[in-house]
Design brief:
The structure holds three protein chains of three kinds. Chain A is mainly α. Chain A has three helices and no strands. Chain C is mostly helical. A two-stranded antiparallel sheet of chain C has the order 1-2. The chains are: A mainly alpha, B mainly alpha, C mainly alpha.
């Protein structure tokens, strides 16, 4: 499959995630949108990694493998983030009985 | 060896001061350190014929090509002598002044002087910059903690202003550093790299360097921090600032601008000289209308430094040597004037000329010293300042690098006349005329003050009658700098 | 000892020692000791000067080098003294008249407290020291040291009674006006250094030295030196300090402001006569400035009522005559007049001091009158002074003034006419002063009349000596036409080349002499008729202008001092604080303002940050996209 398809798909995913983050106020949905963006990047990394591997030619080449390494990194970090983030959201819900981020501008003051 | 000792004694002495138990111990310790530094400086005179004793070289930050290179040449030595001579006098003259947290005060004083000595001796651009900032920071702390009422905004401005200049200088130094073939901060490499720069590069580098030094000196229109800072600082710090620290800027122009970007210095020389000439007349006029003695002396200092700036840009042997001699003499004279101001302020609690008057009746000894210092300040022959001003004016008028030499000399000469006007006005208002309610119970200075002021008076007269030793002293380095900065010689190459 | 002239250093050394001893020991020494040291130092110098003078007369002249004062690169300025005909004459005048004035001062200043008495003598000795440096210096720099030194001493002595603010103002004025001239002197000096590479007289005035100077150089240098001389010697436009300088003690006025310091300018130009002779335009200027000063000051002196002010303006006027002589190329005549003037003007100042002393400090001649009976010695010596200055033969003033008038005539009859008119005014105002002060009825208070007395011996003796000198002093310069041999001119000829014989016939000379003598006698008679019984009356019209000194002080105040003050105030209060510092603070304020304006961006809303980020990234993409095209 040409690389373009992957690029457009991940671009679409990223855009959806971005718009979600910008427009929604529900913390959990924002969170999911962030994950969406991360996964869009992951998809792109894997796609490019495969492309580089193929273009390198040799079957024993390690070309492009670092891209996949990054994907694993991101997944780990995302998992850790989710656990911390969800915990924060739970705390937040307990405190203000809402997950609306607009209530959360106290940091400013 | 001497160079290293000269740096280390005040530096270590300063650090020790912070950890002393009592304030009085700190006071005595700092004076002791200052005297030890002075002795070392004098010791160096004995071995002046052996250059290896006067320089020090060690690796510092090797990967960057920066080394810990110190050297006492005629220029650096003259200024180091000034600093080491002035410091004990300053400490002794302000001996009775009480400071809260005195040990910190004296510690900062010593560190500041160590930084200044480093600037005078540094032969490596990075080291020069390092000491440049090291000298600034203690002064900031002193002025902001022990200064007058408005010390916070004034010191803040002083710090930001000079620091702004330093950053510009750092940019220029780093740029030149990358032009050196072997990536070195050594001064010789800087001279070579700088002189090889294209004309356009020199033109903008000049301003980065010049502004840093112009702020420090200060040259009009970069002077506005100075009267405020002098006024608000404790007098000991004012002496240090005006007597020694401003000489850092002059030294910077002589050693770190002219030889590095000689073509630009030649091209911009008329402009900078014009600024300095305006500054002389401008500062003299303003000094005429001051009421606060400290502000008057501050403005008079701007005028004197302006003359040095023109002399530097006139690039003649006479003016270079004049500047070097004058730096020493100006330091002595202005410290002496501040001492009298300090004595007056301590006794009457005011520096306002309008509130004083008639001191000559009750304090004749003080009046005699003050009149002597005042006349030294306006360069009367047979006082020290005459020699320097004579050589500088001679150089300015006979300069070959500018078309406007006569104009500069005549306009700068107006400063001589105006200098007499404001100095005599101050003398008249403070010491002559009838005594008023405040001054009629004035007491004269005591023997210890007489000794200090008398010592300075002797220095002033001796340097004025027989200046040849210090002229011989500065001959070699002014030749060297002139050779490096000589534009005609460069064009021939 | 190779040469007795090596001893020249002793001449300034004695006064310097006197200055140091009296200055440092002012609280311990008694008045007698102080006076002895002060006068003794000058006497010692005088004796050495005499020895040197006879050496010089025997043809022994030398430049004595002591040490290197300043030596930089090619420029070398030795601390050296030049003992030759010109300087030895001046040495004698300075130390001789100086000694008499010191002796006089021991009595005149006797009412001062010991420490002030010592201070006075210390200043006086320092002054003599500076003046000696000035005339002995073998180069322009040493001369300049003395030049500024006498300015300093003048400042110190004018402001001697420092409790009075106006005296201090006069002192400052003197110093500052002198400084204006000094600046011109300095620039001339640097010009010389630049062109000739030396400042020593022997080198500059040698053929090689002069060859290095173009005509323009010589004109500029001589003109600048002359401006320097106008400051020191009180010529237009820098003369106004001298009358104010009368604030100092009277012997000081005699020494500094009549006999010695003010003649420094004459000395300098006479010393540089080689240069000046090459600049005829400048000589012309000098002659006219001298003439104008002589006339202006004489006209002012006509209506002054302060005894010292009259003498002060008379000094300015006489200095004008000397400059006229210089300008017409008669350098020798100028030096001659310096000498005779030193005698009779010192005499008259000391005489006026004697009067002031007797009057208990009163200086206004309107309050005097009829003093001749009470103070015969003062009166008769004063008469001699007046006769001498008026130029009545055979007293000294006649010969020197005649020499000047003659050289003016040789230059142009117009100059002669004006100079003669000024000389007549001189005779008139001097005798006016004499008659108002010493004849008629006493017009002061009863108390003053009771107090009137002849001054003590220490004051009258110098008067008598000076009177004798005023009478015989002219005989060293009797012109050939009167059977003399112009001895002084010939003595000076190694330094000042004798001008080619002027083409005036002896008959003309006789006529001119006779004319001036007759007219002067007429003036004296006129003064006698008008002022023998003086009554006070208000001045009106032109007389009032004269009484107010042509309003020159007011003019200077309006066009120079006040505008400078206004400018300085403007710079101080507005320009420096608002514009220069305003710019600096403005940069700081701009940063502050910018910070406040952009603060809304840091809203704390995560959403807005993200939005900004996205927008910025998009912007970067767009910009990049277009830039690549």
């Amino acid at each position: 499959m040409p690389i373009n398809y992957y690029i457009f798909l991940s671009l679409a995913l990223f855009a959806i995630g971005m718009i979600g983050v910008l427009t929604r106020r529900n913390a959990i949905i924002i969170f999911m949108c962030v994950e969406l963006m991360l996964n869009a990047v992951n998809l792109l990394l894997v796609a490019f990694s495969k492309m580089h591997y193929l273009s390198a030619g040799s079957p024993f080449s390690t070309a492009g493998t670092d891209g996949q390494l990054f994907v694993f990194f991101i997944m780990v970090v995302a998992a850790a983030e989710v656990s911390v983030g969800l915990a924060i959201i739970v705390m937040m819900y307990r405190n203000i009985h809402s997950v609306d981020v607009n209530f959360l501008n106290r940091l400013k003051h | 060896m001497i160079a290293l000792l000269l740096l280390l004694i005040p530096l270590l002495g300063g650090f020790v001061t912070f950890f002393l138990k009592s304030d009085n111990a700190a006071r005595s310790w700092s004076l002791l350190t200052a005297i030890a530094t002075l002795l070392v400086a004098f010791l160096g005179l004995a071995v002046y014929n052996k250059p290896e004793c006067l320089s020090f070289h060690a690796d510092w930050i090797q990967p960057l090509g920066a080394s810990f290179a110190l050297k006492l040449d005629g220029l650096g030595y003259t200024l180091s002598l000034l600093a080491t001579l002035a410091l004990p006098l300053i400490l002794a003259a302000t001996w009775h002044r009480q400071y809260a947290n005195a040990k910190n005060f004296f510690g900062w004083m010593l560190l500041g002087v160590a930084g200044m000595l480093g600037v005078f001796m540094a032969m490596d651009a990075l080291l020069f910059y390092f000491f440049w900032e090291l000298a600034l920071i203690p002064m900031y702390f002193i002025c902001s903690q022990w200064g007058g009422e408005k010390r916070i905004p004034v010191t803040f401005k002083f710090f930001i202003y000079t620091f702004f200049g330093s950053i510009l200088m750092l940019v220029a130094l780093i740029y030149i550093y990358f032009q050196t073939p072997n990536h070195s901060f050594a001064i010789e490499d800087f001279y070579k790299a700088g002189q090889a720069l294209s004309y356009n590069d020199q033109m903008w580098l000049f301003w980065l360097l010049f502004i840093a030094f112009a702020v420090k000196m200060p040259i009009f229109p970069f002077h506005t921090w100075q009267p405020d800072t002098y006024e608000q600082s404790p007098t000991a710090a004012t002496m240090l600032l005006s007597g020694i620290m401003v000489k850092m800027g002059v030294l910077g122009l002589l050693r770190w601008v002219l030889p590095i970007v000689p073509q630009a210095a030649y091209s911009w020389g008329d402009l900078t000289s014009s600024m300095a000439v305006i500054g002389i007349i401008y500062a003299s006029l303003i000094a005429m209308r001051q009421d606060d003695m400290k502000r008057l002396i501050a403005y008079s200092s701007i005028a004197h430094i302006g003359l040095m700036a023109i002399a530097i840009f006139s690039e003649t042997q006479s003016s270079f040597q004049g500047v070097m001699v004058q730096m020493f003499n100006h330091g002595i004279n202005i410290v002496a004037l501040w001492m009298v101001v300090e004595i007056i302020e301590r006794q009457f609690g005011t520096r306002k000329m309008s509130e004083l008057g008639g001191l000559a009746q009750k304090a004749p000894a003080l009046a005699i010293f003050f009149v002597l210092f005042a006349f030294a300040n306006i360069a009367l022959p047979l006082t020290n300042a005459f020699v320097g001003e004579f050589l500088m004016f001679n150089g300015i008028l006979n300069s070959a690098v500018t078309k406007y030499n006569v104009v500069f000399a005549v306009l700068a000469g107006l400063g001589i006349i105006l200098g007499a006007v404001y100095t005599l006005r101050m003398t008249r208002k403070v010491f002559f005329g009838p005594a008023n309610a405040l001054t009629q119970n004035a007491v004269d200075i005591k023997w210890n003050e007489k000794i200090i002021l008398g010592f300075i008076a002797v220095v002033i007269i001796v340097m004025g009658v027989y200046p040849q030793p210090i002229l011989d002293f500065t001959q070699a380095i002014s030749d060297e700098l002139l050779k490096q900065a000589d534009i005609l010689h460069l064009l021939k190459k | 000892m190779k040469n007795v002239l090596q001893l020249a250093y002793l001449i300034p050394l004695f006064p310097l020692l006197g200055f140091l001893i009296n200055g440092l020991g002012r609280n311990k020494l008694s008045k007698g000791v102080i006076g002895t040291i002060g006068s003794g130092a000058i006497l010692a110098s005088f004796i050495v000067s005499l020895i040197l003078f006879f050496q010089v007369k025997g043809g022994n002249t030398e430049v004595v080098n002591y040490f290197n004062f300043i030596s930089v690169g090619n420029l070398s300025i030795p601390f050296a003294f030049q003992i030759d005909q010109l300087s030895s004459i001046f040495l004698l005048i300075i130390t001789g008249v100086g000694f008499l004035i010191h002796v006089y001062s021991t009595s005149y200043m006797h009412d001062e407290k010991p420490e002030h008495f010592a201070r006075y003598f210390a200043y006086l000795n320092l002054f003599v020291f500076s003046m000696l440096l000035l005339v002995m210096g073998a180069n322009f720099v040493i001369m300049f040291i003395g030049w500024e030194g006498v300015g300093l001493c003048s400042y110190l002595l004018i402001g001697f009674w420092f409790k009075k603010p106006e005296y201090n103002k006069a002192a400052s004025k003197a110093f500052i006006m002198n400084r204006i001239g000094d600046l011109a002197f300095l620039i001339a000096l640097f010009w010389l250094i630049g062109k000739v590479g030396s400042v020593s007289f022997t080198e500059v005035f040698s053929a090689e030295g002069l060859a290095k100077l173009s005509t323009t150089d010589i004109t500029v240098i001589t003109l600048l030196l002359f401006v320097g001389a106008t400051g020191k010697s009180a010529q237009i436009p820098l003369y106004t300090w001298l009358p104010d300088a009368m604030a100092g003690p009277t012997p000081v006025s005699a020494l500094i402001h009549a006999a010695t310091m003010v003649t420094a300018g004459i000395y300098m130009i006479a010393r540089s006569n080689v240069l000046y002779s090459l600049a005829p335009d400048v000589l012309n200027i000098i002659a006219w400035v001298g003439l104008a000063t002589a006339l202006l000051a004489a006209s002012i002196a006509l209506k002054q009522n302060d005894i010292k002010k009259v003498l002060a303006y008379s000094t300015v006027s006489q200095l004008g005559f000397m400059f006229l002589a210089l300008g017409t190329g008669a350098y020798g005549a100028a030096v001659f007049h310096v000498m005779t003037h030193a005698f009779f003007k010192a005499l008259m100042f000391l005489g006026s001091g004697s009067v002031i002393h007797a009057m208990g400090g009163e200086q206004d001649i309107r309050k005097m009158g009829g003093l001749s009976k009470k103070m015969p010695v003062t009166f008769w010596t004063f008469v001699i002074g007046c006769v001498a200055i008026a130029g009545i033969p055979p007293l000294s003033g006649f010969f020197s003034k005649d020499a000047i008038l003659l050289s003016a005539y040789a230059k142009s009859p117009v100059m002669y006419g004006i100079a003669l008119f000024a000389a007549l005014l001189t005779a008139f105002y001097m005798f006016r002063l004499l008659f108002i002060t010493f004849t008629g009825k006493f017009r002061g208070t009863h108390e003053q009349e009771h107090h009137l007395h002849e001054s003590p011996k220490a004051m009258t003796l110098p008067l008598i000596v000076l009177a004798i000198l005023s009478v015989i002093g002219g005989f060293v310069g009797v012109p050939a036409v009167l059977g003399g041999s112009d001895e002084l001119i010939h003595f000076l000829s190694p330094v000042i080349a004798i001008a080619e014989g002027h083409h005036i016939s002896h008959t003309t000379e006789y006529i001119l002499m006779g004319l001036s003598t007759v007219l002067v006698l007429g003036m004296v008679l006129g003064a006698w008729v008008i002022y023998k019984n003086y009554k006070e009356k208000e001045n009106t019209g032109f007389a009032k202008v004269l009484e107010n000194k042509w309003y020159v002080d007011e003019l200077y105040d309006t066009i120079i001092v006040k505008p400078l003050k206004v400018l300085a105030d403007f710079l101080n209060n507005i320009f420096d604080k608002k514009v220069v510092d305003g710019l600096v603070n403005g940069v700081g304020r701009l940063v502050n303002y910018g910070g406040r304006q952009f603060r809304w961006i840091q809203s704390g809303q995560v959403g807005s940050y993200v939005l900004l980020m996205v927008v910025s990234i998009l912007l970067i993409f767009v910009v990049q996209f277009f830039l690549r095209k």
